[in-house]
Amino acid sequence: MLRNLLLCATLLLLVMAVAPVLADPIIGGCQIFPLDNAWNTDISAALVHPDSAAYIANINSNGGTNLHADFGSDPTYGIPYTTVTGTQAKRSVIFDYADESDVGPYPIPPNPPIESGSDHHILIIETTNCILYELYDASYVSSQWYVGSGAIFNLGSNALRPDGWTSADAAGLPILPGLARCDEANSGTITHALRFTVDSTQRAYIYPATHFASSITDTSYPPMGLRLRLKADYDLSGLTGQALAVAHALQTYGMILADNGSNWFISGENNPDCWNDDQLNALKDIPGTAFDVIVSPQPPSEVRVPTHNAFDTATPTLTWSRISWAVQYQIQISNQSQFPSGNATLGDTVEANALSYTALSPLANGVYYWRVRALDTTGTPSAWSAVETFSIQA
To answer: How far apart are alpha carbons 348 and 365 in whole angstroms?
Structure first.
């Protein structure tokens, strides 16, 4: 008996050790991207962007000035999604923008839910392997699916679209992780950022976006990927239920600019029998001026540098991997691992296509520490990469 109990306890420990640990947001047993993904990052303590007021004023000058939930009890509102298993047969699709689309095939079930209006999105989670499939402007004609563009995302990865590529969304972002879901709102807690639109955007994008959809080069216009946060001191006493959950999410996780559309429209799932319009309508009282543009955090693991190298030259060349959204890089070299002020050499800013840096001045023999960070189109830096070492044996 004791032996059997011990065996059961051992098996239980083994199951606990190998079972995946999931955390919200979860759909169909799949965690919707890692917790350090941009969509799931808590930005309540992030710095306010120095151009925040100018961006907010620009948005307000080009359309509506108050928040609006683009979902509710109207069956034509919101963006639907569906789930399938790995046994769902996959279909080929014909793209309008094939050069920026993932070729597929796509596990489109019979009669999938398609977004109303002009965008006709189809969002599918394949729950066996936790893969997200998204299609834009989808239609089924003569036994063939025709779509504008399509994107496939591994929900266990933080990988971005290739630089300059769209997705099923104008900014090159996945749509599903930015949707407010009714079950989350009813629970009182939404643990991710929300997708939103503005009328006019800049011909630029910043992390985590990879694509622009504008010809406007005026830098006072918001770029795709811009992240906003509802001010912490904004009075929420007039909100209840679902609206209060949305507002708390906007204070904690914010919202990410993903497409051109009506000003201040935030996205949610199509679930007309669940949403409460009496509660959601209170969000319309929140003005755009209640938001700050924040300095979006960059994941520290984005920039990869090689491990220890030995150089027989006093002016070594250091290399790193490409970041899709970067327009420049900065290099820091020191003979101390903490990079103390006055003891670090900040190399010249390097253009994004360089991916290498050669020391400008000869270095003495010894061991050095170095790191690199990326800059986006606004000059906002990512976190520094992991610190690596090299030695000079000239």
So the answer is: 22
Look at residue 45 and tell me if it is in a domain.
Answer: yes
Q: How far apart are CA 186 and CA 3, in angstroms?
A: 47
Nearest to 288 by CA among 61, 70, 41, 48: 61
Q: Does residue 384 share a domain with residue 260?
A: no
3-state secondary structure of 5: helix
* Residue 21: inside a domain: no
What is the biggest distance separating any 2 CA atoms in the chain, rounded to whole angstroms?
77
**Peptide bond just before 25 cis, omega within 30 deg:** yes
The more confident residue out of 185 and 342 is: 185
Same domain for 242 and 378, yes or no, is no
> Chain-wide mean pLDDT for the chain?
87
The larger pLDDT score, comparing residue 126 to residue 368, is at 126
More confident residue, 9 or 110: 110
Q: Are 224 and 365 part of one and the same domain? A: no
Residue 296 makes CB contacts below 8 A (sequence gap 6+) with 38, 43, 46, 206, 207, 208, 225, 226, 227, 380
Residues 144, 214: Cα–Cα separation, whole Å: 31
> Lowest-confidence range among 60-69, 150-159, 184-193?
150-159
Mean pLDDT, residues 210-216: 94
Q: Scan for tokens 């929300």, then name that residue.
A: 194
